[in-house]
Amino acid sequence: MSDKKKKKLTPIQQQYQDFAEKREPKRPIIKNCIYAFLVGGFICLIGQGISTFYIHFFHFNEKSAGDPTVATLIFISAMMTGLGFYDHIAQKAGAGTIIPVTGFANAMASAAIEHRSEGYVLGVGGNMFKLAGSVIVFGVFSAFVIGIIKVIITKYLGGF
Amino acid sequence: MIFLWAFIVGGLICVIGQIMMDVFKLTPAHTTSTLVVIGAILDGFGLYEPLIKFAGAGATVPITSFGNSLVHGAMVEAEKAGLVGVITGIFEVTSAGISAAIVFSFLASLIFKSKG
């Protein structure tokens, strides 16, 4: 907890915060990092395998193979989310399953499945981007700002 | 050889994410959003494309490549159409990922029922 927030609390609340902080279980950071490395690396390895497969058998080139690879990974992870496998892996692997694009698909598929009981329009349609939306919003906004800056520099100011 | 680098680079990006979650206590949503912005900035400086050449899927599968391809689509279109291209081109490269995610998530919600 930041110091700014702490100042607003009464002394007893502060004492409680310190008390709670001491008893918070320590996160096994190194173990988590190793799991994240292995699982994340493995997912990228699968991605590389799929992309090599598309290059060799469907005559994509190295650039255009990216799209079907990502789509395949998303398909696999959406189905695994539906069957309940993905969450089992995610509990152990942490960021190893969240950071690859499969985590993005998992966030969308799990939101879609979870809110199905509220109906297809308001439930599935309205809540699908509930968790994954932040990625799209911040990605698009930052891409917009960077794109504008780059265009102004390269086109109107004649480059560096 | 590219398989080895894909494994190592992809794993390292995930470790960065894990450190952000464990050491700086960010939520997964904050972590992924930050990584997307980092990917976009890296591509702004032209640093992400060499990484993809070097590590293949190790750089394209993590969510950082989402930010990279957003900027990429915007820049390709901006070359042709000027400033308007930044708006029209943003989703050009990523549309495969987003469309696939929407379609398959919807299919999953048709097929599967939530447990628990």
UniProtKB/TrEMBL annotation, chain A:
Pfam families: SpoVAC_SpoVAEB (PF03862). Keywords: Membrane, Transmembrane, Transmembrane helix. Coiled coil: none annotated. The chain crosses the membrane at residues 33-57, 69-86, 93-113, 133-153. SUPFAM superfamilies: MFS general substrate transporter. InterPro entries: MFS_trans_sf, Spore_V_AC, SpoVA. PANTHER family: STAGE V SPORULATION PROTEIN AC, STAGE V SPORULATION PROTEIN AC-RELATED. This is Stage V sporulation protein AC.
TrEMBL record, chain B:
InterPro entries: Spore_V_AE, SpoVA. Keywords: Membrane, Transmembrane, Transmembrane helix. The chain crosses the membrane at residues 83-112. The keyword Metal-binding does not apply. Pfam families: SpoVAC_SpoVAEB. This is Stage V sporulation protein AE. It comes from Thermoflavimicrobium daqui.
